[in-house]
Amino acid sequence: MDRYFAVVARGVEFLAAKELVAMGAADVREVVGGVHFSGPPEILYRALLTLQTASRVLKPLREFAATTPEMVYSQVRRVVWEAYLNPQRTLAVSATAEKPPPGPGGRSSRPPQSYSRGGPRGGGRGGDRFDRDRRSNEPPPPPLGGTTWLMNTMFAAQKIKDAICDRLKNEQGARPNVDKEQPDISIQAHFAGGRCTLSLDATGPGSLHERGYRGEHGAGGAAPMKETLAAAILQLTGWNGLVPLYDPLCGSGTLVIEAARIAMRMPAGGGRAFFACEKWPDFDGTVWAQVTTELRSKQLRKPPAPIFGSDASETQLLAAKDNAYRAKVDRGIEFILRNVEDAVPPTDEPGIVVTNPPYGIRLGDEERLAGFYTKLGEIFRTRFPGWIVYMLIGNLDLVQHLGMEADDTHRLMNGPISCRLMKFDLTNAPRTPVEPKPVELPADSGDTASGDAESDETDLDDDEDV
Fold first, then answer.
1. Domain count, the chain
2. Who has greater pLDDT, 36 or 436?
3. Range of 351's domain?
4. Structural domain ending residue among the three candidates 208, 227, 243
């Protein structure tokens, strides 16, 4: 059996581990940022197609001490690359690295670089060049990955690519070409604790969170929630698809679309056009076809219970409907144009509310949102008795305005923002009829990382491809 590694956002490794055990993987072991497992090719294919919370699946080839760049080069050359590559096949190399500890104030201790223009491009005294005279007096930035030499991952990726190409030239007489878009073999290196783990990337271009249904409609300038985060939230609620689900701030629809896909037993990776492992020399097309046929045969035409999403923005709702259509779940979701101040249970049968209210990260956001959270708490307490409400909240100071005490919490990362998924059990709450009153809705409501946050899942230095 081969060994594999599923890259997972911190805090939800146990969810991916449960999925892997359920599909029959062996040697399942959680670590920070991922899950180790092993199995035959069938398990790899199932992991790629069905894992809800993983961003990548890798096949580790070699782990070694990365004390110097020369050691990295030497260790990489020892891998029998001719088993995977020849001069007619293409490759791409990417590298990630553990970031150094934060400096004072919680910020990265790597000072910003400053640049000056030394003359017109291609002329003057060197053109665009680094202005050493304008560097700060701070000490040099610490290296990455627990090493003493790695200052950027581009250098590491280049070193690894050179070692691979030099070995193949020596063994086969020619070097393979580089193709960053769709290479035959994609190689990933990760540096941490002074060591390097070298792996084949079975995923290919783009993360597994890219399900293939996201359209071009914007989300008010803020990044939509990643599909893997939405799936993790739904798994944490314990929702089994047999009771109604409602998101009253659905935005572009990620939570309700992922809910519909789960309820309809649609494989998370079923919408992807390509996986890198399909170009591996040992790829088993027969087993792949058997797995995909089996997964398709289990799909349902509609969710067992109704799913609803509402939003005050026509633009957002149009994006949600378009995304649902591309995800092939448009028949399983009812979208409603509605302000959250007018939110009421969309069905007589109690179910669960799952939503991502705005929490803001800009100056003045908290004061502006305090009244909104007060109203939101009132709406849930008085109009949703018998329901269980789950909210992803990224500003804990706003929780006090809800007027509700959480029954359970779980820490999650929404991009770089530390959040809490909070459970409010209203199954025993009395119903108090209220007259809806207008409330000023924040512009960044619903299905976003809030405050234009980017959606990096792991605490890694950015990938660099060569």
1. 2
2. 36
3. 213-264+302-466
4. 208
